[in-house]
């Protein structure tokens, strides 16, 4: 191992006793003289490390993106050529099963006239261990080489002359449109963060048919032949449907039987590269393909930077010098609505985020500060602020992640706010912290759950964070108010709350009875209420359950879901069936994970009655329907 940090070296020695360690990669390379070096570090370091390995006489494998600049890629390839060493990159989709089938049948479709490479994906928002993930546009650049090199591989096999990037358009929302040409063959590249469903495919159109390689399902559909007769047009959909059915079944069987743990195609790419090293034959990837992939990706990165500068100019923040509101979690589902509502009320806003948001994720007028409040909340965060809305919390992961990003973050925020002399602190909790089975409608002062770990890490994190916020506020003399939103929904773009049930493909398993009412709240209403609360501090009691003034039934929520999903089939799972299943699940959890808390599945999906009288009165006051606030009804 090589690491300049003595602490890191000591940590590695505790994992691998007796391991040899060096202060720099150059020292390691000079002493150990490895045959092959895999470079899997962040992209900005690929160039220097690749050159160091080549100068030490090692063949190199470089994870994608190969480099961020064509200049660096060219320098690496020149050095490799001079030293007679091989270079490979993480272009494993070229060795996946769909590519192999596509390559096999490519001659059958005649002269290729057009290629389409499409990739839609969902950005990663959470990483194991609480690590900060890349912002959305950087994730786009990270996966971009995959659809690019697939497109270029077919163009290389089908066209003559140089690769030309004819046109390029990159939207602020992270969608790439490009037209690429080689000789008489054109190719389109579309990569999007917004398109759904998630797909990755390569379509090749020739004069005698087409091929469709699907990298999500690991299948390839063939439509070979002119397909111009009436019989062809009639039978083609059935042939392709049969290929999709049998191909998908075979792909699932392959993955299951192989117990594949790595990315498909990766082991095959390594094997091909090592064989080239052993036999002194050319690398599986040509230098030209590596250069052209980097060239197109660099052009996209440049376009994103231009768009970023434009977006940042349009989203210039208002100065937070007085009456400011500090919002944690301000880039999240609820946080964005809070920020918009605050700005609409003329309040300056400072958003604290663990990672820098992409330009298109920012809200014009808000100030964004990158800080990890799980490690501390410095005085600079509170400058010009009189109110804090702490909406950040962990929503995924296990107990350590919730300890760090919910409990520890809350402690630091309350202590930091108290030290800065903040007047008001709003802690956004959750209805999930309230005890169940107490009888009667659940009000704002309902008892908290006693077994905080019985409903999983999320509820535990929320409950213990609320307790910590209240206790620390009393200890430090900070006015802390607790707001507990119900399950957040957006009726403009409806996504079902977890207690409604579970979607399985085109089926939705709804749990309970259609007449059950769920404690949900519209995210837009929640944002407006929390913003209004900052100006009406004395009028809002604490704690307060933030709900829709009238709780909708499960049937009403499913009607919203069906409007956006007309082909959805709903299957009801009655409570009397769920309860025994939950008992079985609890026993299995205790057997499989002895010593760890078991989650009560029936409890997770239960529908509880809520008293919404207080929030109904406040909602009318907020909307200007009533002038007087009957305080007796809010106690």
TrEMBL record:
Record flagged with keyword Oxidoreductase: yes
Location of the Gfo/Idh/MocA-like oxidoreductase N-terminal domain: 16-91
UniProt entry keywords in alphabetical sequence: Oxidoreductase
Keyword hit for Oxidoreductase: yes
Record-linked InterPro entries: Epimerase_deHydtase (IPR001509), Gfo/Idh/MocA-like_OxRdtase_N (IPR000683), Gfo/Idh/MocA_oxidoreduct (IPR051317), NAD(P)-bd_dom_sf (IPR036291)
GO MF entries: nucleotide binding; oxidoreductase activity
Every NAD-dependent epimerase/dehydratase domain range: 325-489
Gene3D superfamilies: Dihydrodipicolinate Reductase, domain 2 (3.30.360.10), NAD(P)-binding Rossmann-like Domain (3.40.50.720)
Source organism, top-level taxon: Bacteria
PANTHER family xrefs: CONSERVED EXPRESSED OXIDOREDUCTASE (EUROFUNG), CONSERVED EXPRESSED OXIDOREDUCTASE (EUROFUNG)-RELATED
Membership in a protein family: Belongs to the Gfo/Idh/MocA family.
Protein name according to UniProt: Oxidoreductase
Organism name: Nitrospira lenta
């Amino acid at each position: 191992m090589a690491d300049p940090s003595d602490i890191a070296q000591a940590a590695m020695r505790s994992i691998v006793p007796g391991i040899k360690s060096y202060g720099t990669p150059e020292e390691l390379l000079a002493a150990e003289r490895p045959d092959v070096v895999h470079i899997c570090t962040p992209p900005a370091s690929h160039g220097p490390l690749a050159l160091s390995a080549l100068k030490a006489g090692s063949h190199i494998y470089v994870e994608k993106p190969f480099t961020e600049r064509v200049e660096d890629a060219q320098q690496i390839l020149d050095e490799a050529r001079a030293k007679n060493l091989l270079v490979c990159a993480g272009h494993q989709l070229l060795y996946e099963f769909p590519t192999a089938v596509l390559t096999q049948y490519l001659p059958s479709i005649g002269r290729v006239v057009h290629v389409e490479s499409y990739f839609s994906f969902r950005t990663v928002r959470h990483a194991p261990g609480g690590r900060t993930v890349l912002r959305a546009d950087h994730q786009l650049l990270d996966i971009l080489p995959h659809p690019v090199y697939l497109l270029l591989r077919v163009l290389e096999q089908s066209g003559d002359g140089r690769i030309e990037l004819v046109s390029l358009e990159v939207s602020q929302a992270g969608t790439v449109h490009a037209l690429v040409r080689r000789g008489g063959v054109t190719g389109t590249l579309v990569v999007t963060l917004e398109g759904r469903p998630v797909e990755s495919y390569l379509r090749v159109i020739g004069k005698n048919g087409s091929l469709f390689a699907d990298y999500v399902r690991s299948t390839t559909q063939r439509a070979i032949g002119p397909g111009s007769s009436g019989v062809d047009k009639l039978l083609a959909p059935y042939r392709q449907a049969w290929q999709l059915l049998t191909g998908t079944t075979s792909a699932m069987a392959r993955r299951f039987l192989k117990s594949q743990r790595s990315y498909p195609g990766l082991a095959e790419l390594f094997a091909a590269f090592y064989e080239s090293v052993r036999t002194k034959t050319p690398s599986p990837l040509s230098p030209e393909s590596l250069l052209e992939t980097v060239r197109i990706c660099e052009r996209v990165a440049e376009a994103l930077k231009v768009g970023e500068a434009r977006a940042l100019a349009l989203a210039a923040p208002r100065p937070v010098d007085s009456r400011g509101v500090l919002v944690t979690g301000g880039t999240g589902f609820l946080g964005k609505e809070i920020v918009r509502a605050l700005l609409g009320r003329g309040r300056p806003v400072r958003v604290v985020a663990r990672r820098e948001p992409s330009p298109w994720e920012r809200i014009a007028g808000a100030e964004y500060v990158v800080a990890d409040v799980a490690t501390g909340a410095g005085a600079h965060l509170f400058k010009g602020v009189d109110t804090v809305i702490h909406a950040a919390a962990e929503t995924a992961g296990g107990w350590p992640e919730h300890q760090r990003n919910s409990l520890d973050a809350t402690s630091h925020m309350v202590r930091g706010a108290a030290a800065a002399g903040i007047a008001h602190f709003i802690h956004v909790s959750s209805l999930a912290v309230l005890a169940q089975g107490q009888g009667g409608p659940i009000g704002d002062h309902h008892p908290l759950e006693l077994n905080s770990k019985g409903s999983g890490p999320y509820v535990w994190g929320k409950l213990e964070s609320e307790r910590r916020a209240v206790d620390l506020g009393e200890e430090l003399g900070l006015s802390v108010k607790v707001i507990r939103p119900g399950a957040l929904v957006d009726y403009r773009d409806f996504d079902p709350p977890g207690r409604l049930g579970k979607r399985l493909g085109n089926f939705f398993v709804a749990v309970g009875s259609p007449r059950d009412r769920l404690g949900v709240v519209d995210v837009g209403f929640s944002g407006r209420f929390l913003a209004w609360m900052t100006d009406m501090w004395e009028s809002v009691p604490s704690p307060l359950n933030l709900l829709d003034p009238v709780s909708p039934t499960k049937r009403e929520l499913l009607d919203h879901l069906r409007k956006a999903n007309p082909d959805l089939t709903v299957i009801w799972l009655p409570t009397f069936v769920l309860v025994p299943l939950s008992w079985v699940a609890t026993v299995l959890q205790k057997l499989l994970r002895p010593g760890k808390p078991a989650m009560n599945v029936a409890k997770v999906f239960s529908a509880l009655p809520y008293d919404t009288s207080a929030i109904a009165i406040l909602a009318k006051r907020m909307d200007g329907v009533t002038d007087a606030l009957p305080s007796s009804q809010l106690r």
